[in-house]
Design goal:
Layout lengths: L14 E5 L1 E4 L5 E9 L2 E7 L7 E3 L11 E2 L17 E10 L2 E11 L2 H11 L5 E3 L1 H6 L3 E3 L4 E5 L1
Parallel strand pairs: 4-9, 5-8
Antiparallel strand pairs: 1-11, 2-3, 3-4, 3-7, 5-9, 6-7, 7-8, 10-11
């Protein structure tokens, strides 16, 4: 006897989807936030597809155990539409967005103090970093505004 069941397509093992929040901020524009964790501690990242490089906040307590080294040379411009002089690099262990987990061997750290002052006022919390297009491209990110989901692939 033939059984007619709708079969769910199995999710590829290397594909991870998590909820994101899309907030309208005063003054216009929509900002996309993704929950993340650093070494098992929960935090929030801003997703900015126009930011060339992913950066993390050097003043966040979550990175107190990361050995930071000053980035020397002329390759200091890490987007945000500005030249940034105080750029550091370090290794982040156990960076996760949803069930997607990776180590970031050459994480870039800058001060996000001005940005966090804005977000603390507008949404009541700070971000630990900005996911830029380098990370989004590397992990083949798909941002689904309709369902409020971010999908990453290894």
């Amino acid at each position: 006897e033939k059984i007619n069941r709708k079969m769910k397509r199995p999710r590829p093992q290397n594909q991870y989807t998590t909820r994101i929040s899309i907030k309208s901020l005063e003054g216009g524009g929509k900002h996309i936030f993704a929950p993340c964790s650093i070494g098992g501690t929960r935090a929030i990242m801003l997703i900015d597809t126009g930011c060339s490089n992913t950066v993390f906040d050097c003043s966040s307590e979550l990175f107190s155990d990361v050995r930071l080294h000053e980035l020397k040379g002329t390759n200091k411009n890490y987007s945000l539409n500005a030249s940034i002089d105080d750029v550091k690099v370090g290794k982040i262990k156990q960076f996760a967005i949803g069930k997607f987990t990776t180590d970031i061997n050459r994480a870039v750290f800058i001060s996000l103090e001005q940005i966090n002052t804005l977000y603390e006022t507008m949404i009541g919390c700070k971000i630990v970093g900005i996911l830029g297009s380098d990370f989004l491209k590397k992990y083949k990110a798909v941002i689904d505004f309709g369902s409020g989901k971010l999908t990453l692939k290894e």
